[in-house]
Design goal:
Four copies of one chain form a homotetramer. In chain A, helix 1 packs across helix 11, helix 6 runs parallel beside helix 11 and helix 7 runs parallel beside helix 9. By secondary structure, chain A is an alpha/beta fold. In chain A, strand 3, helix 4 and strand 4 form a beta-alpha-beta unit. Chain A has two domains: about 120 residues, 3-Layer(aba) Sandwich (Rossmann fold); about 160 residues, Dihydrodipicolinate Reductase, domain 2, CATH 3.30.360.10. A seven-stranded mixed sheet of chain A has the order 8-9-7-10-13-12-11. In chain A, strands 2-1-3-4-6-5 form a six-stranded parallel sheet, sandwiched between helices. Chain A has eleven helices and 13 strands.
Chain lengths: ~350, ~350, ~350, ~350
C-alpha cells in the first residue's frame, strides 16, 4: 500500500482526498495535518467519514511527512512553497493542489498572488498536473502542480481546437461558473447561504488569478501565445464547474464533433458527449470526469465548447489522485472509476 | 382607474402581473382568463394573493376583454396571434408578453417557432416593447410586443457599445443564464427540483429562439446587421437572468464606465453600477430593474458587459406594466418603484 | 410623515425595515446607524436599495435618534438594553427587534443569554409586540419588545387551542424550521452555502433561547403554566419559518377548522387556510402574513397545527412596522398589505 | 458473481441501484427493464453512468428475470404484486422496493393505496427488509419487502425507546422531512424547482401511507399496539430524510445516550452520534447510513430523537442491497461501505 500524507486536511479538497482514498485499493492515508485542529479526530470535523477514517489531525511535522510515499498539499496558496523544498530534498514526492507551483514565472506569480515567491528556483522542476497534456512528465515527476479547477475545464475545452489549429488563438473567450465549494471551507460573508443562494453573479471580471495559468498552458499546447478572456461566475450550488468557451473558427461551420471525439478517444476521464447533448454539472458530481460537448450555432464562425467537471474531483482532489496513480505506476483509474451521484 | 384584463393568468407572468398590479395606484385587474381553471378563485391557485385578489378565472370571452382599457396576453406563443386581431379591431390596446409579435418577418418566425404565423399582416403594427429603445413609439401603440427575458438583458448590455459604434458588430457573444421560472409553470421532467437543482447546463447551444429577436433589434439600433452568438444556460434557482456579453473593442482598453453611465443617465429602470462592482441577480429580485456593469479585462480589446434582471419583472411582467404606463400616459414608474427583495 | 430611526441597519432585519418602509405611505427613515459602516451609503451595502434610499450610515448618536418619532433596534441581543433607557427618558418611542426586553424575568434572561441584564428595572415597561395578543397595550406603549421569529409562528399556532382550553397544556410540542436568514448576516462557517445548502438538521435540541419566551407568553394566554418542547431546524433556503405544532386534544377528533377560523376572523395578517390545504413558506415570502392550517390525523387525539411566516417580515421587521402603526395611530396595515413574492 | 435483474430502472431508486452495484465486488446487473424505454441505452438516460454501464433497457420478460439470482423491483406500487408471484414460483429471489408487500393486512393496504391487492395470499411470505429488526428472517427469505424511506428513519429512531419500554407507546410523534427525490422521477407540477425550491411545507398531515407501516412494525417491536402521529414535509433539496421523533418518557430526564449506543453497538449502518451533536442529512448523502442523536430538552419528560438517512440509499436502494447481501450470504457491508459525499 502506498503511504499518503495530506497537509492541510480541514478544507474541502482535504476531505475529498479522504473520501476518494478511502475507496482506493492501493493507497492509505497515514498522516493528515492541520495547525488549527491538532488532536481532533478527523471524523469529528467531517462526520461523513465516521467508520471510514480513524485518523487524528497532527502538526505538519516534516519527518512524518517525509516518510510518506507521496504528500498532498491541500492548502491555500502561499503554504506549500515554504515546505515543499525540504520535503523534496528528503526524498518525498509532492502533489500540490494549490497555486504555488503552477506558473513558471515567479514574477507573474507575484503579480497575481500579491506576494514574493518563496522558492522560485524550484518552479522549473514542477510538472503541471493535467494528465491529458503531460502524462509522461507526470510519471517521472517528483513535484506535481495540479491545475486550478477552472483551468482544467477550460483547457480541456479548448485543447482540440488549438491542437488542430482550427481557431484564432488570440480571441479565446471562457465564460465559466463554479459552485461555492470552489471558494473553500471559509467563513466569508459572500459565501453564506443567504448571500450566495438563489443568486448568480460574475466576479473578478477585470482579471482572475486563473487567467495567466490558462494562457501559459494553452500557449504551450498551441505552440505560441494565446489570448484568453476569462470571466468566472458564482453558482448557487455546492459542487460543479461549467465552462462555456467561444472561439472563432478558421473554417466557418466546421463539424467539430469528430475532432473532439478523436482527440479524447483514449482518455479515461474526458468524455465527449454525443452530438446535440449538453453537459451538466450534476452528471459528474462526485466523479473524476470532464464531460464535453461542442456546437457551432447556426453553422457560423463561432465554436462553442461546453465542459463540466466536479471542481473538487477532476478539478482538484480526483485529478491529484490521478496524478498520484501515474507517478507511482498504478493503473491511472484506480479509485477513480465510480459513477457520479445522480440525482 | 385603468381597467386591465389578463389572458392566460395561470402562469408565472400572470401571477406576477397580479402581484405588481395589486400595488399599482392607477390600474385594476377586472378580468383574468384561463381555459383550464374557469370558475376557480385565483387565490386558490396562488395563495400569496389571499387578501389581495378576489377574482375568479373566466373563459377568455372577447366582449369582456374588449371592455378593458388594456389586455395583457400572458400566454405561451401561438395563442395571442389568434385573438389579438379581433381585440384590436374592437378598439382594445394589447400588450403581448409572448413571442407572437416580436419578429417582423413571419417567415423567420415560422422557422424558429415551427408553425405558420396566424396574422402576418398585423406584425408591422406591433411596437417592440423595450421602452429604453422605443419609448415614443410605445406611447402611440395599440399593440406592444414585449421582448423576451434574455433579449431584454442582452440588448441593454450591448446598446451603449453599438450606439457608439465602439465594437465589431459581427462578433457579439452573449453567454446568459436564467432561473427556472423562465421555463414557465409547467410540469416538465427537466424542471423538477431533482433534475434542475444543484446543477448548471447550457441548452439550445446550437440555436435558441431569442437569437433572431436579438439580432433584429440590435441591428435596428446599430443601423446594420449584427452577428450574435447566444448561449443560454439554466440556473438552479427560481428568478433572475444574468447576461455576460463580450464584444471586440475598436479601441483596446477604452474606458467604458462613462459610456454606460451617460447612455443610461435618464433611465429609471436601468442602473449602471459603480466601476468595479458586479451585478447580482438577487439585488433585482422582484424589482423592475436591470443592473449593469462593464469591464475590460487586463485593459485589452475585449469588453465584458454584465447585466442582471428579474426575468419575471424587467424581463416580462414589470416591463409590460412599464409599457402600459407609457401607452396610457401614466408616470412610467407607477407601481414599479419598489426595491428588490434581499436577501 | 413619521420620522423613523434605525439602530443597527447592516443586518437583514435592518435592510428589510428599509425595503418595507420605502413603500410605507406615512413613514420615512431619517437616520440609520452602524458603528462599523459609518459614512458608507446604505445602497452601496445593499444594492437592491439603489434608487430607493439615499441615506448614509451614521454613528448611533443619541440626539439624532431622540429626535425621531420612533426608533427601531435591529441589533443583536445585548445592545438595545444599554441604549434604550436613555432614549425612553428623552421621550422617544422604541421598538426593539432583539431579545433584550422579551422576558419579564431578568434572571431567566441571564440564564439563556449568558449575561447580566443591563436594565432589569425597565423590563416591566416593555409590551410584547405580538399585536394579535396585545394590540391595545401596544397602542399605549413606549417600548415594544418584538417577539422572536419562531415564537411568533408557534404562538399563533397554539393560541386558539389554549384560549379555548382544548388541549393538555403541559404537552405542547413544536417542531419548527427556519431559513438561514434567521441566523443573521454573519460570516459563520455553519451558514456558508456549502455547509447549509442541500442539508437539513436540528439544532439546539437540548434547549433554545426562544423556548422560555414561548412558555411565558403562552402561559399568559392559557392562564397558567404551559409545557413546551421546542426543536428548531435549519432549512436550506433563505427566508421562511414553518412550525409544525402538536397538542393532545381533550376531545379526540374535534373539528378544529371553525375554531381557528373564528379565532382569527378579524386579524388582517393571520390567514387560516381552507380545510385540507397546507401552508407553504413561499406563499408568504416577503409578506407580513402568517398562514395556518390544522389537522387531526386519523381523527385521533393529536392536533397538528402548521404555521408559516417570513421570518424577516411577520417574524421580525414587518411585525415591528405593524407595531409602529398601532403605536402611532396609523391604519395597522399601512405599508404591509402587499402580496408575497411567488414564485 | 451474483446475477441481478432490475425491474423499472428509469426512476431514482433504479439509477441508484445501478450506481451502487457498479461498485459492488460480488454482484453484476445483467438485466434492466422499462416498458417506456425499451432499446435505449441506460447511460443515455443517466449520463452519470457513461463508462460504468453498457446495458440497454428491455421489456420486463419473465424468463430473463427468472434467470437472475435476485430481482429488484424499483417500480411504483401496484406493479410488483402482479409479477412477483410468477417469479417466485420460477425460483427467483425478489427484493421489492415498493409498498406492495409491506403491510400484512390486504385490507389496510387497500384502504391506503386505493386498490385491491393482487396477491394477498403472498403477503405472509414477505419479510420486512429492515435488517436491524429482521436480519435472520431476511437471510432465509425469498421475498423481501423493503421499508419506505420515512419508516426506516422513524423506526430506527423509536426502536431503542420501545424495546426498552421507556416511553408511552401510544403517544409517539414523528415530524419528518424529505428531499424531493422521495417523490420520484416524475413530471409533477408540485415538484418543479420553481414550486419546490426555497420552500417548506407539510403534506398529507391528515394521514400518509407510511403511517400504518410504521405502526405495524413498531407494534411488533413493542409487543403491542403503538400510536404514531406522523407528519411528512417536503424539503427544498434533492436527497435526504430527517426525522424528529418525540416520545413521553416514563422516567423524566433519563440519560438516553447509553441506551442508544448500546442498542446499536453492533450495527454497521446505524451510527449514534456523540452526545450533543445533531445529525445532518448531508453527512449521509450517498451513504448507506442512518445517523442518530437523542436529547431530553431541559431534562424534562419528552425525549427527542433525530435520525438522518439518504432516502435513496439507506431509505431505499442501499438498504435493498444490504438485504441482498444478507439473503445471498455475502458480507453485509459489501458495496456499501463508502463514505457520504460532503460537501
Amino acid at each position: 500500500m502506498i503511504r499518503v500524507g495530506i497537509v492541510g486536511g480541514t478544507g474541502y479538497t482535504g476531505v475529498e482526498l479522504l473520501r476518494l482514498l478511502a475507496a482506493h485499493p492501493g493507497a492509505e492515508v497515514v498522516a493528515i495535518t492541520s495547525r488549527g485542529e491538532v488532536g481532533r479526530r478527523v471524523d469529528d470535523l467531517f462526520p461523513n467519514l465516521r467508520g471510514s477514517c480513524d485518523l487524528v489531525f497532527t502538526e505538519p511535522a516534516a519527518a512524518a511527512l517525509a516518510a510518506c510515499d507521496v504528500v498532498f498539499f491541500a492548502t491555500p496558496h502561499n503554504v506549500a512553497m515554504h515546505s515543499v523544498p525540504a520535503l523534496l530534498d528528503a526524498g518525498a514526492r509532492v502533489i500540490d493542489l494549490s497555486a504555488d507551483f503552477r506558473l513558471r514565472d515567479a514574477g507573474i506569480w507575484s503579480r497575481w498572488y500579491g506576494e514574493t515567491h518563496a522558492c522560485p528556483e524550484r518552479l522549473a522542476e514542477a510538472v503541471y498536473g493535467l494528465p491529458e497534456f503531460h502524462r509522461e512528465a507526470i510519471a517521472g515527476a517528483r513535484l506535481v502542480a495540479c491545475p486550478g479547477c477552472y483551468p482544467t475545464a477550460i483547457q480541456l475545452a479548448f485543447a482540440p481546437l488549438l491542437a488542430g489549429d482550427l481557431v484564432d488563438r488570440d480571441q479565446l473567450i471562457a465564460s465559466a461558473a463554479s459552485g461555492v465549494s470552489g471558494a473553500g471551507r471559509q467563513a466569508k460573508l459572500d459565501n453564506i447561504l443567504t448571500e450566495a443562494s438563489d443568486n448568480f453573479k460574475a466576479y473578478g471580471a477585470a482579471g482572475h488569478r486563473h487567467q495567466p495559468e490558462i494562457e501559459q498552458s494553452l500557449g504551450d499546447l498551441a505552440g505560441g501565445p494565446v489570448g484568453v478572456t476569462f470571466v468566472p461566475h458564482l453558482l448557487p450550488m455546492i459542487r460543479g464547474i461549467h465552462a462555456t468557451c467561444f472561439a472563432r473558427l478558421k473554417t466557418p461551420g466546421l463539424d467539430l464533433q469528430p475532432v473532439f471525439e478523436d482527440y479524447y478517444a483514449d482518455e479515461p476521464f474526458v468524455d465527449v458527449l454525443p452530438a446535440g447533448q449538453h453537459p451538466q454539472t450534476r452528471t459528474v458530481r462526485g466523479a473524476n470526469r470532464c464531460q464535453l460537448a461542442v456546437a457551432v450555432p447556426q453553422g457560423r464562425e463561432t465554436a462553442v465548447v461546453m465542459a463540466t467537471e466536479d471542481n473538487l474531483v477532476k478539478g482538484a482532489s480526483g485529478q491529484a489522485i490521478q496524478c498520484m496513480n501515474i507517478m507511482l505506476g498504478l493503473p491511472e483509474t484506480n479509485g477513480l472509476a465510480h459513477p457520479g451521484l445522480l440525482p
